[in-house]
Write a structure and sequence with these properties.
The protein contains 14 helices and 15 strands. By secondary structure, it is an alpha+beta fold. The chain has a domain of about 190 residues: Triger factor/SurA peptide-binding fold (Orthogonal Bundle), CATH 1.10.4030.10. The strands form 4 sheets. Strands 4, 5, 6, 7, 8 and 14 form a 6-stranded mixed sheet that branches. A 4-stranded antiparallel sheet has the order 11-9-13-12, with helices on both faces. Helix 2 packs across helix 5 and helix 5 packs across helix 14.
């Protein structure tokens, strides 16, 4: 059976504001008009009062996040840590830390940034041990295998290799850093596979027992869940764990990437898969966690929940109704000129002097914002991260009273979606619908025997991989500088 271990890194190109920066600052022009003049006698749209938009918005530029600490040697090229005979350089730490900050969408400061830096150092230490173990077992990773992983990333995120390199460069990282990380992951997967694959035997009885467990919950709703877990080993540390959880919750609210943050902060085995624990049925988790899930809407994140062992932050990524539930396809009214929609506008100002590179860069950022759009409340916070961007709550607008460009952009949208960004005389325009997004319901379907066998295999091989790493770290001499 082919081993399938989760990669410890998932590049979130589509994370809001994590993609690119302009080559230079861009002076803004007058914003383009939102609505055309209404014909005489036409009904006025019901519209909320919006804050006055400045005639000359401030110069905007996406924030570039780099790892900066208070340590005097933070920018040196010295040694950050030594594990046995292997050194972890400050350069490696900066490259990996900048990569994480850019792809996670968070902006930690002070002690939080130092803690992340410490975790990055530990991760790099583990990679040194993994690569050394692979060398001992004569494991090799061909450049073409790393190429395949990068090509998969490019395909999943719909970007080119040039765009990826630009993302990494703007983040203060590099393609070389990414390739080193992927090489270590692939080598470790092969090493674990060689060591343990022949020792795993999934019996028919185990598969039958698991299928019976699935059947027990088939008549209940199922939730697709990710978690971030903060362990409480000592009751005296409960308040510290809660503080950490609340800090991460705040980062998630401001656009942080859940999977990347789970990988970096979560103390659960699911961290290796970005916190993904798959589908669970109603009543399967601890009562306090289950109660929170039942109240959550799809694509939302919970506040920290105290449960067995510590605090949990849950993300509800999907929901399935009980087996056999008849699901009616959601109906959405077609958009006409008489449609009245709650709208918001985000403008990335450009001027007549803007170069093609500036326009392209702004367009890429707009595309990333659209890909990560999760409601107008979050969209309103973008100017806090994106200097000079202009947000307006337009209220309820009659489509026929909008400019032709906006009418065209809204044509193919559904509730809770953002229209395709377009360029106006003012800059890159993003128009978002603020009505509640319609969630497409699905009914639960029982997994096949092969699905269950693969899942059991992955669980066992992942547990063995964690035990393998604990054994490698046991007794090693680690010095963090």
């Amino acid at each position: 059976m082919r081993i399938v271990l989760p990669l410890f890194f998932a590049l979130a190109i589509s994370a809001p504001l994590a993609s690119a920066t302009l080559a230079q600052t861009v002076a803004a022009t007058e914003p383009a008009p939102i609505a055309t003049q209404a014909p005489a006698g036409s009904a006025k749209p019901v519209q909320k009062t919006a804050k006055a938009e400045p005639a000359k918005p401030k110069i905007w530029e996406p924030a570039v996040i780099h790892a900066e600490t208070d340590d005097s040697d933070a920018d040196s090229d010295g040694v950050a840590a030594v594990i046995n005979d292997f050194a972890v350089s400050d350069y490696e730490v900066r490259q990996r830390l900048n990569l994480f900050l850019a792809t996670s969408g968070i902006q930690p400061k002070g002690d939080e940034l130092k803690r992340i830096r410490g975790q990055i150092i530990t991760q790099l230490e583990n990679e040194k041990l993994e690569l050394n173990e692979a060398i001992k077992k004569h494991i090799t990773v061909a450049p073409s295998e790393v190429d395949n992983q990068i090509n998969r990333m490019l395909g999943e995120n719909h970007v080119t290799i040039e765009q990826l390199r630009e993302v990494l460069a703007n983040a203060g990282s590099s393609e070389d850093s990414l390739r080193r990380q992927l090489t270590a992951q692939l080598a470790w997967q092969k090493t674990v596979q060689q060591e343990y694959e022949d020792r795993i035997n999934i019996t028919p009885e185990e598969v039958n027992a698991e299928l019976e467990r699935y059947a027990e919950g088939a008549d209940k709703p199922h939730y697709l869940v990710s978690e971030i877990f903060f362990q409480v080993d000592n009751p005296d540390k409960d308040a510290d764990a809660l503080k950490d959880a609340q800090s991460v919750e705040e980062q998630l609210k401001t656009g942080g990437n859940f999977g990347m943050i789970a990988h970096q902060f979560s103390q659960s085995p699911s961290a290796a898969a970005g916190g993904d624990i798959g589908y669970v049925y109603d009543g399967q988790l601890a009562p306090e966690l289950n109660a929170a899930l039942k109240k959550m809407a799809v694509n939302t994140v919970s506040e920290p929940i105290r449960s067995i062992g510590g605090y949990y932050i849950l993300a509800l990524r999907g929901r399935q109704e009980p087996l056999g539930t008849k699901i009616d396809a959601p109906k959405q009214d077609a958009i006409s000129t008489d449609s009245v929609l709650p709208l918001a506008r985000l403008l990335l100002p450009l001027s007549a002097a803007s170069t093609k590179d500036m326009v392209d860069s702004a367009s890429k950022i707009a595309a990333n914002i659209r890909a990560g759009f999760n409601g107008c409340d979050e969209l309103s916070q973008v100017p806090e991260k994106l200097k000079g961007a202009v947000y307006m709550n337009l209220g309820n607008m009659r489509v026929g009273d909008l400019s032709p460009e906006i009418q065209k952009a809204l044509t193919n949208t559904k509730s809770g979606e953002m229209a395709q960004p377009f360029i106006s005389t003012a800059g890159v325009e993003m128009i978002a619908r603020c009505d509640k997004k319609v969630v497409i319901q699905t009914a639960y379907a029982m997994p096949t025997r092969q699905d269950v066998e693969n899942m059991l295999f992955d669980q066992q091989i992942s547990a063995m991989a964690r035990r393998y790493m604990r054994d490698l770290r046991r007794g090693v001499d680690v010095e963090v500088r």
